[in-house]
Amino acid sequence: MKTVIITGGNSGLGYCCAQKLAQDPSWYIVIACRNLEKAQRAVKRIQEIGNSQQIEAMTLDLASLASVRSFTAKFAGSNLPPLSAVICNAGVQFIQRQTYTQEGFDTTFGVNHLGHFLLVHLLLKQLVAPARIVFVSSDTHDSSKTTGMPAPYWRDPQLMAYPEQDPILKNKNIGIVGRTAYTTSKLCNILCAYELSRRLQQQGKSTASQPIAVNVFNPGLMPGSGLAQDYTPVAKFVWHNILPILSKFIPNVNTIEQAGTALARLIADPELAGVTGKYFSGFEMTNSSTESYDQEKARQLWNASVELTQLKPEETIL
Ligand SMILES: NC(=O)c1ccc[n+]([C@@H]2O[C@H](COP(=O)([O-])OP(=O)(O)OC[C@H]3O[C@@H](n4cnc5c(N)ncnc54)[C@H](OP(=O)(O)O)[C@@H]3O)[C@@H](O)[C@H]2O)c1
User: Fold this and answer.
1) Ligand 1 centroid distance, CA of 8 (Å)
2) 3-state DSSP helix/strand/coil % of the chain, to nearest 5
3) Active site residue 153
4) pLDDT by residue (tens digit) across 240-267?
5) What is the DSSP letter of 142?
6) 159 and 165 Cβ atoms separated by less than 8 Å
7) How far from the centroid of its chain's Cα atoms is residue 18's Cα?
């Protein structure tokens, strides 16, 4: 048996992925969630539906670097089956207000990128190869695609962490700023995944026979998930009631169950063993945006993230 950690596994995509993996008795599933009560309800549902006891919830708040460190310390002492996969799935989007993490970073950048950056580093020591890491991104990272979202706005990552210091954002509408922070964070997920994949290989930590594969997943639009928590009441109504009906007729719109199955496949399909540094849209391996392959931006993001998370050399194998 082997363990998979799924961040935000209590709802939406992460929950459906956990439900799918629970059908395979070789997985022990840890859903890592900010609200333990909600997470335990999700565990109970999965246990009842799948008749599986191989799942538990642990507390992880990605909006707190202290919580990320305490989660990984607790996991290290938990005596669970070997850690073989990490799915960085949790995500937030704010369109009505500016919010901050415990350390004072913009929440969207802090949760979607920085929290996962630190989490993965702290877990690298505990991963047992062959292993797989998946970052959940979104096609909204790609400005050449029509997604209804603003293009990502690349700049010094310090300004992504502290957007109030960015003069260009000063007079912009909060809805645009929030959506842009989201699409930019999804670009960061890809830059980070590709850079991690490269560094693991270059430093001999991931080899052909003992790979630590790092890939990116785009679920497509999945209306009805919890991602609309900060939408206006009207937008929430459309998200939960209208769009799910339309999803049957519009391409690139998926049910959460379909996307959960495709995400589970990225860590479970033997055919993908050793495939690393790739972007998957649902079941299809495809290209991400040109910008997401920019190695200079990836290095810049990496270095700033080390600084912002105060990652210590002894905390990572890289
Ligand atoms: N829905 C879409 O159309 C769509 C499209 C492309 C990509 N995605 C991506 O898919 C992923 C899953 O989103 P979803 O649509 O399934 O939304 P969701 O149902 O809201 O799931 C997001 C999960 O992240 C958790 N989370 C939020 N903040 C957290 C924090 N500080 N610490 C730990 N966990 C936290 C949420 O916990 P709570 O339940 O406590 O809020 C929830 O479990 C995200 O990365 C999103 O960007 C979604």
Assistant:
1) 6
2) 50, 15, 35
3) no
4) 998 888 777 877 788 999 999 999 999 9
5) -
6) yes
7) 14
What SS3 state is found at 56?
A: strand
Q: What pLDDT sits at residue 103?
A: 98
Handedness of CA 299, 302, 305, 307 (dihedral sign): negative
Q: State if residue 181 touches ligand 1 by the CB under 6 angstroms criterion.
A: no
Residue 221: phi and psi, rounded to 5, are -70, 130
CB 288 within 8 A of CB 216: yes
110-134 as b/e: b if 16+ CB within 10 A: bbbbbbbbbbbbbbbebbebbbbbb
Cβ atoms < 10 Å from Cβ of 25? 10
Is it the case that residue 205 has pLDDT exceeding 90? yes
Task: Convert the pLDDT of each residue in 134-191 to its tens digit.
Answer: 999 999 999 999 888 999 999 999 999 999 999 999 889 999 999 999 999 999 999 9
Residue 8 backbone class (left: φ over 0; alpha: ψ -120 to 50; beta: rest)? left
Domain encompassing residue 104 = 2-315
> What is the domain-level CATH number for residue 92?
3.40.50.720
Q: Specify the number of domains making up the chain.
A: 1
Residue 29 CB less than 6 A away from ligand 1: no
pLDDT value of residue 281: 97
Q: What is the Cα 6 distance to its own chain's centre?
A: 9
The catalytic residue among 182, 194, 231, 279 is 182
Rounded to two decimals, what is the model's pTM?
0.98
